């Protein structure tokens, strides 16, 4: 299973979830994270655990949550190892780097899976496979057949439309400016905001 992640925040959140689940279920399949920025980030999370939220700090009494027992640094050669494994690799949208290299290697086997844990920008490979594309044009005019399973699990750090509407209700701003997102979706959200809040203002 390949899980393309952003190196900061998302990677650590998912590492904690899997570490806890592996322990509870006594699973033995190895879990790896790609080295580089994720490894550095993990080191700093471990170092500054007292800066994290209360729930994480509470577990620090027993052990440091970022002292992963089941999760090890990934080496390129491991991608060819037989048997099951889970790999967290960056970047999160499969547009370059280690996650894309592993994806290319594993894409042709239906026993493999990629779990996309967040939003993917239009045009990225992550976006294409989430929309069901099974033949991808790669650089150098080669075609990649995607046979692996594709799953989406939302771990987005951004609020969705519902969350934004809630925030507007609570904050009651005089003006709203939408600056981040896809034009069509922002247009839709603008309509919802005008529809709901033009009556009260």
From TrEMBL:
Q: Has the keyword Hydrolase been applied to this entry? A: yes
Q: Which domain of life is it from?
A: Eukaryota
Matching SMART domains: Beta-Casp
Supply the alphabetized keyword list. Hydrolase
Domain named Beta-Casp is located at: 11-129
Kindly provide the name given to this protein in its UniProt entry: Integrator complex subunit 11
Please report the organism this UniProt entry assigns to the protein: Goodea atripinnis
Protein encoded by which gene: CPSF3L
